[in-house]
Every structure is written in C-alpha cells, then in structure tokens.
Specification:
Elements (H helix, E strand, L loop, with lengths): L1 H7 L1 H4 L4 H11 L11 H16 L9 H4 L3 E3 L15 H24 L6 H26 L2 E2 L14 E2 L1 H16 L18 H18 L5 H14 L9 E3 L9 H8 L5 E3 L1 H9 L4 H5 L36 E4 L1 H13 L8 H15 L4 H10 L7 H12 L4 H11 L25 H4 L1 H11 L14
Antiparallel strand pairs: 1-5, 2-3, 4-6
Helix pairs in contact: 4-6, 4-7, 6-7, 7-8, 7-9, 8-9, 9-10, 9-14, 14-15, 14-17, 15-16, 15-17, 17-18
C-alpha cells in the first residue's frame, strides 16, 4: 500500500520542492490507528490485564488453580478435577500468557520508555512500576512451574533456545531485584496512571515488599535463615497493611470484565460448584462467609463431590452473586493474604510485628470483614475458632485456605507450604497425588527440546506431582 500511495501522488509533486514532496509522502505512510511504536503505558496496561486476567481465570483451559486446591468442583465433566492437564493444554496456555502476552510487553515498555519525554523522577517511577510488575509475573511462573527460562529469556537476537534456570536461583535474583527497585522509588512523585494503583508509588513499594514477603515465606522449610531475613526485611520496609493497598486489577465491565463473570455469567455456563470439601469445612466451623458466597439447596449448603461427574447443577449450592459481578476486581495479592503470611511468620518465631495469636486474629478478622461479615459475627467466629499454637500449621493453613477462596494461586501457595487442609487425591485422578506444580508447556518440547528435557531431569521429572524446591514436606 505504501508504494501505491507514492505512485498515485507523483503528479501532485510536480512543481514542488523535492524536500516538501518527500515530507508530504512520508506523512501519508503513517497509520495513526496502528503506530509502529506503542507508548509504554499502553504496553503496561496490556501486560497488567493479561497477567491479572489469566492468573485469576477459572477457565478449564488455563491455570486450574481452583481445582489444584480442591475448592471448586465440576458438574458437567470432571476432567480437570481429575487432574487431566493434557487435553486442554493448560500448561501451554498459561505459559504463553505469562511470557508472551505479559512479560514480553513489559520488556518492550522498558525500551520504549527510554524515548518518551518525562521528568527524571516520573521516568524513574515508571521504570520501577514496570520492574515490579515483571517481578510479580516471574514469581507466578516460578511458583507454578519451578525451573523456567529466565536469564536467557527474551534475547531473540542472541539466544533462540534459552536454558531453564534453577528456581531457587531465580528466587534469590527476584529478592535482589525487589531490594534494588524499591530503593529507586520517588514516593513524592507519580508514575503511570495504571489500572491498580493509579501511579501511587507508596502503594507500589508496599506491593513489591509483599511479593518479597511471599517469596520469603515460601523459603521457610528449605532455607529458614534466608527466609527469616527476607521476611523480616520485607515487613520492616512496609508491606500491604489495608484493603486499599491490595493489588486489585480493576475491571470496568465493558472493555474489561472480571474473568469469573466471563466464565459463570457471560458464557452462561453451569459447570462450577463450591466443592464438598470447602462447604463441609466451613459448615463445621460455622463460617458466616457461606451466607455471602454460596446459595442453598432446600435450605442447606451442599457442595459438589470433587473429581466426580455430579448430579444436575441445580442440586447443589452455587457460587452466589458476590462472585458474579463484571466489575469485581482480581484481588491477586490481598491484605488478608499478607496478614496470614505475617501470622505464619510469627508462628515460625520471626519478628513479624506482633504475636502469632494477634496476627492470626487480625488475618481472620480481615477476611471476614472483606466479605461483609458483621463485627458481632466476627467476634463469635474467632471465639469458636481460636488460634491453636500446638498445631499452628493446621490452624493458619485451614483459615488461610478458606480466606483465599477464589484467590486460587495464593491458596495453592498456602496448601503446598503448610499441607493444610489435607487434600486427598480423587479416586479417578490421572495423577498419583494432588498437583504440586504445572508441567511444562508441550510447545517447549518442540521449540526448546534439549533445555526443557534437561530441566525436567533436574527437578525429578516433568510431572504435576513433582514438588517445587521449597515444598519440602
């Protein structure tokens, strides 16, 4: 089309100077609707949307976190709750969304930002935002797959088949990157008008420290010394301390809709139920969140049997209106999660800003408050379900698992680390145990075969039942 435009305008150039003709023709070749260089804020918005939507997506085609924690059951077909991770290529789909659609856009945004006109402080803050967002996605990748391409990734001019880096080595680098980037933030200035914090750099810093807290707690059983120093450093520097500071990707219901809404309402699908395990656990604890989350059947709560082809959808409790809003945010690092991480840190005798019992109380209270439970009912629940220091992994683990309902990735971290509640492999499972990781993308065996095979051998086999390096027990 560019040559056609030039040829068609040759007669117009007669009588004009050469320079003016060339200038006019060049401008006609510009397509304002498809710019050759995208602004870095557009790339950031795309990366944030892709990572948030697909970390939070309950579709059977993607991460399956809600099935890994056995909080959702299926009614029409049970393949995913029987841990079939092959038919729908979930490992490939999640891998590509995080690498290609998310981190790749952030890497390009960093390059494009260099040529954008900004004050020094705003540029510094924008670069910090891109870096923190990238670290957040790397943490998801390494805690989903284990060893992944990292140091050699995103170097297409140099390396077409990147090696898989050791997961703990990636952890150490992410912690160092958090320390480095938080030191650069200019809190008195702004950054991007982003879709989570709107350029509030104090909140971005707390978010970064909360990622560090996550990383530190995951190290607790495999490297207690490093875990303690990492966690205490994160808390001292300032982590998320209110619901207003949580990492929530906001949907407007038009351009962007919440992924749970898309799968339950917009798709008009009657596939998903709260599981029997979660319903019965909450019943036994007299949990008032059931009234907010689930519908009743014949006046009672009834969860679906996990891993089985259930009776008709209408025979079971369903996910209520609380989860069905198009504008509900994806709360991917919540204040409740941070509060439970701090409670666990205190239980492990780390300096976490309070005692284990006080921080447990604060964490449970926040989850109940977040879900609209009254002050009186919160007090009753805490009196009925106090902190149990003698079995703190169960006490914190079960309560965190409930609090992270519909926050699948966060819930999976707690269940793998604390081994509570005890998840039983369903009788018709395709695996020998519940999943501890996502297998590698099948495309990697075609495009990066030698490196992915080496990684698989190193970690003990590319199986969903292979534990991550930090999942010691």
């Amino acid at each position: 089309m560019k040559n056609i435009i030039k040829l068609g305008l040759v007669s117009v150039c007669i009588g004009l100077t050469l320079s003016s003709c060339q200038s006019d023709l060049t401008s006609l070749n510009d397509d304002p609707k498809h710019p050759s260089v995208l602004p870095s804020d557009n790339l950031l918005a795309t990366a944030m949307y892709q990572s948030s939507y697909y970390m939070d997506n309950p579709s059977v085609n993607f991460n399956n976190y809600r099935f890994f924690t056995q909080q959702w059951a299926e009614t029409q077909y049970p393949d995913e709750t029987q841990y079939n991770l092959v038919t729908r290529n979930q490992p490939r789909n999640h891998f590509n969304r995080m690498y290609v659609y998310s981190i790749n856009n952030l890497r390009q945004a960093k390059l494009n930002l260099k040529n954008e006109v900004e004050t020094d402080d705003i540029r510094t803050n924008k670069l910090a935002t891109l870096e923190i967002e990238e670290i957040f996605i790397w943490e998801n990748l390494v805690d989903t797959y284990g060893d992944v391409p990292y140091s050699e990734a995103f170097k297409p001019d140099e390396i077409l088949t990147p090696k898989y880096d050791d997961a703990k080595t990636i952890y150490l680098d992410l912690i160092n990157r958090i320390d480095a980037v938080t030191a650069t933030i200019k809190p008195a200035s702004t950054g991007y008008a982003d879709l989570v914090y709107g350029g509030n750099m104090a909140k971005w810093k707390k978010f970064a420290n909360s990622i560090k807290l996550r990383l530190g707690m995951n190290l607790a059983d495999v490297d207690p010394t490093l875990s303690k120093t990492t966690v205490e450093s994160a808390i001292a520097s300032g982590v998320i301390s209110s619901d207003d500071e949580a990492y929530k990707f906001k949907y407007d219901g038009n351009t962007f809709s919440n992924p749970v809404f898309d799968n339950l309402v917009a798709s008009n699908r009657n596939d998903f139920l709260p599981s029997e395990l979660v319903v019965n656990t909450m019943k036994n604890l007299s949990d008032p969140r059931m009234d907010v989350w689930f519908t009743k059947v014949a006046g009672a709560y009834k969860g679906g049997v996990f891993g089985e082809l259930n009776d008709p959808y209408t025979n079971f409790s369903q996910l209520g209106p609380y989860f069905r809003s198009a504008t509900a945010s994806s709360n991917l690092l919540s204040y409740a999660e941070v509060a439970f991480l701090k409670a666990e840190a205190a239980a492990r005798n780390y300096s976490a800003g309070g005692t284990a019992v006080d921080l447990y109380t604060a964490a449970v209270t926040e989850s109940l408050r977040e879900n609209g439970v009254s002050t009186a009912n919160i007090a009753t629940y805490l009196a009925t379900n106090p902190y149990n220091a003698a079995n703190w992994k169960q006490s914190i683990g079960v309560q965190a698992w409930i609090a992270m309902f519909n926050k699948g990735f966060a819930s999976w971290n707690f269940t793998r680390r604390l081994d509570n509640p005890i998840l039983v492999n369903p009788p018709k499972s395709n695996l020998s145990s519940v999943p501890y990781r996502m297998p590698y993308s099948d495309q990697e065996y075609v495009l990066n075969g030698a490196n992915v095979k080496a990684a698989a051998n190193k970690i003990g086999g590319d199986k969903a039942t292979t534990k991550l390096f930090w999942d010691k027990f």
